[in-house]
Amino acid sequence: MVETVTLARSGSLAGRRMASVTELAPVARFSFRGSEATAIKLGEAFGARPAVEPCRSSVAGARSALWLGPDEWLLIATDQDAGTLFAALETALAAEPHSLVDVSHRNTGFDIVGAGGAGLLSEGCPLDFDLAAFPVGMCTQTVLGKAEIVLWRFAPLSFRLECWRSFAPYVADFLAQAADNQD
Amino acid sequence: MSGALRLPRGGRIDRNQPVRFTFDGRGYDGFVGDTLASALLSHGVHLLGRSFKYHRPRGILAAGAEEPNALVTVDRGGGRWTPNLRATQVELYEGLVAKSQNRWPSLAFDVGAVNSLVSPMLGAGFYYKTFMGPRFVKGAKLWADLFEPAIRRAAGLGEASRDPDPDHYATRFAHCEVLVVGSGPAGLAAATSAAQSGARVILCDENPVFGGSLADDNHAVIDGMAADAWAAATIEALAARPNVTLLPRTQAFGYYNHNLIGLNQRLTDHLAQPDHRAPRERLWQVRAKHVVLATGAIERPLVFPDNDRPGIMLASAGRTFLNRFGVKPGTRVVVATAHDSAYRAALDLAAAGVQIVRIVDLRESSEGALSVAAERAGLPIMRGATIVGTSGTTRVRGVRIGRVSGRHVTDLESLACDLVLMCGGWTPSVHLFSQSRGKLAYDEGSNSFLPGTPAQDQVSIGACAGTFGLAQILRDGHRAGHAVIKMAVEDRDFAVVGDDESTGAGFIGATPHDRDPTQVKAFVDFQNDVTAKDIALATREGFRSIEHIKRYTTTGMATDQGKTSNMNALGIASAELGRSVPSIGLTTFRQPYTPVTFGSFAGLSRDALFDPVRETAIHGWAAAHGARFEDVGLWKRAWFFSRAGEDMHAAVNRECQITRERAGLFDASTLGKIEVVGPDAAEFLNRLYTNSWTKLGVGKCRYGLMLNEAGFIMDDGVVGRIATDRFHVTTTTGGAPRVMAHMEDYLQTEFPDLKVWLTSTTEQWAVIAVQGPRAREMLAPLVDGLDISAETMPHMSLQVGTFQGVPMRLFRVSFTGELGFEVNVPADYGRAAWEALWAEGRKFDAVAYGTEAMHVMRAEKGYIIVGQDTDGTVTPDDAGMAWAVGKTKPDFVGKRSLGRPDLVAPNRKQIVGLMTDDPRTVLEEGAQIVGDPTPARGTHALGHVTSSYFSAVLGRSIAMAVVEGGRGRMGETLYIPMPSGSISAKIVKPVFYDLEGVRLNG
């Protein structure tokens, strides 16, 4: 009998956990506040139905809704300009008490992608990035060093980081320094 | 050439890799794997430092983190200079440069040793006694001229580098199910059994190589393997597991709440040529579900007279240097002990060819296996005996020993030797347990404090829990590894052969001697030079609690935190006071366990990353146009725009004059902005502001005043109504986060019924103030046909439109008193919008102005700045703004307080204007105001200057102030006493320019 042996394969960068950090292209962002019932109505108009489970996100095509608090969601759309979308959503929600505020320019977004992403974030964020503790789809308001951020894991090795625009240079510099600090 | 005392084989050093290093400029060699201490000992060098207070020659006491004496400075050049490193932990590398400390001019001849001669003056409580001594003697200020300079010179150990630290430091937040501190047999067994469950395990150890005491053990056999080989195999198996993180050279220095443990990992200090792009150290903040403490035990010195000479060390240290580093720490040794374990050191040293001159055992008898073995080996043992003195200056040369008979010592005898090993027993390392708030329990049987009930999810195993048999330790470790993660416990027995099973309670306190107790120095705390008689003196002077004794004598207060001294200090106090050890208490174990560099604590928070620097969208333009910036909170704001040759004064004058003459542009982006949205938005604002909002029409603005609950002004700003249910609220720059938190607090706790939500939009909008008589002319071509005429858009109105195609909220507001607009565009368009306005402004030579000109112009109009003209004690009426308070409103935050007697009392300080009699004199902000031109000391101040500027437009100085009953003093002359003389000024209304206010309606 011939035994089949599977040889282990090792890449040239084995062991190095790298990540790319890129600035997100301009998108439409809204802070949506209201009851869960209103959120469901909003979901019909927006496409992505806001999650009611804490710290979870929902994605439908180019639309994402991130749960940030019991009555607070961050809406992100990459397919429409903020003004048009704002008007459409306001029309759909006209009868509902709520708050929809355009924050497209308030935030700067970063995509942190790669096996080393969690390591970069762990330099300044006290959360546990194990997939069991911070699963795909989880989002939360937290900190990176001295900056307040929103952090969202949209794929196993992909994080979206959003901060207020004036904190973006700090965040970018922090992540660059964190990359230098990795083993 | 390797050191003469190096053994031909054995130990963890690599004899194929010699390294050269210098100590105090002299070259030596050693091997990779050596510490500075072991390499120096291989050359017979014992003198490593001078003691803190008496400058006594000191050597190496221990072999690890507890070392109190052998503190050195390592200099890598270029500012890489680290003082107070324990030579026993400094790993050798090629080219290491180490220096001794606390000596001048040289280690062997140290002038400071004169302190030893005046030591009676430097006894316990020396510092405190100088405080209480005479302050003056014959005109000399004793304290200021003598004591303080002397104490300051003597204070502190080692010298800090004067250069900036060129290294950088990493931080890491980490999470695990099990953190194991200490990699001795207990830690290895626990980590292995915990890792088998798949749980995330972090194992850390302060040493470069894992294994703890197993590295010193050349007798025990575990599961058929020599102890060190077993350790190596266990570590290899752990390293192969993906769920295990091994952290060598990593000190667990602090145990905090909720199982947060601080670890400091040394990454590059052991490397000959570190990559300086790599971080030097990494601070780990580990949040562990469970913590296993396997921190071992520290051997206690014996407190006999002159027990501090170089060449006197702990017995275990002698064994470590022999077995771990292959170095004979001496050639003729006297062993003084009160515990069996020292016999193991004696046996190992004897086997290596070291002459055992005498084993002096304080105990009358010992039946432990080790002492039996020592007897069988023919080692000379003297029981019921002690050392009463030692000789030698920079190295011990001999001891005097004698037989203990009650409190006396008889049959004195002198022995020549070059090494003394001492062992007073073992003190479990309960530092981390104690930091975790676990209560310690005193165990009479072992003279030690042991971990009691843990306060957090934590377990102590091995020697730190008072367990000393190897087989038992391994069994406990294995069990703990399972138990902490709530796995079914499967006990495992390790086959252990050759374990010493050494026993004994050891001894605490000072050993007996027949010498004049006032003349001998028997050291308890080696690092702080505290002797047995200091502690005895403290008890005689009335101190009863160890906390007081500690502070009075400074025992246990050095950088080693009393690792080797605490129990002996307690023993002495206990004997002196005739009270039990637990009744005297134990001092608190504080973080850090060993010193941690400031660099590590700072981590990334230095230089550019010290704090976020917030810049507006227009910052780059301002920087390119000569702006000087000022810090406002974390923001950089353009302060003034300096043209060639202009100083600040000239620039501000020009900016003010041209703005009032023509127009000026101002970056107001940092103003706080909050979007208040919802059907109850107006009602919410009614409750948060003094003003009434219900009747404010859509498209209108109003100045809002916000009070705290005490009725004092906390913030102000213009609020615009964008829609029935949508308000655009502005706040001061510095107050933005505070106002948001204040609003959110009330909304959530007091008014949860209101349907309204708050969103910070500070950073959504770039805000450009266009001010001046030609502001409309500047703006009109850019607003895409929007009608901004005075009729359509009067003062305090707003319109939503577009600015060159991008969304715009346009406010007609003024903080200068001129015709003014504030253009809000989405922040990414801020720079382009500014440049477009600037291009328009160039047509008639408008200016860009900064915060200083803004301050001057608003003061010319008497507009207050919250936080400058108010200080948290100013009511709306004090500020002359009673008009902003809605009298008919049922309630608003602060309303009730406004009726308090103190807030309606006459003669409150009110905001007024001040005009100096000399128009060129600009008052100092903060200067006190009095009624008397030549006030006597203690004269009551009527108020103080809050804002003061030179107004170019008025050609004179202006000021605002708060003055008692100020509005009733119009025309009165008051005085501002300054070092150069009193300045007289007249009280006026706080408005200096365009008194009728016609300009802003232009």
UniProtKB/TrEMBL annotation, chain A:
Please provide an example of a Pfam family that matches this protein in its UniProt record: SoxG
Instruction: Kindly give the InterPro entries that the UniProt entry links to this protein.
Output: SoxG, TrmE/GcvT-like
Q: Which SUPFAM superfamilies match?
A: Folate-binding domain
Q: Classify the source by domain of life.
A: Bacteria
Q: What's the protein called, per UniProt? A: Sarcosine oxidase subunit gamma
Automatic annotation (TrEMBL), chain B:
UniProt organism field = Lichenifustis flavocetrariae
Q: Specify the protein name.
A: Sarcosine oxidase subunit alpha family protein
Q: Where is each SoxA A3 domain found?
A: 521-602
**Which parts of the sequence belong to the Aminomethyltransferase C-terminal domain?**
909-994
Q: Report the NCBIfam families cross-referenced here.
A: soxA
Gene Ontology molecular function: sarcosine oxidase activity
Task: Specify the FAD/NAD(P)-binding domain's residue ranges.
Answer: 177-442
Single GO BP term: tetrahydrofolate metabolic process
Q: Which keywords appear in this protein's UniProt record, sorted alphabetically?
A: Oxidoreductase
UniProt lists the family membership as follows: Belongs to the GcvT family.
Residue limits of the GCVT N-terminal domain? 618-889
One Pfam short name: Pyr_redox_2
Domain of life of the organism in this record? Answer: Bacteria
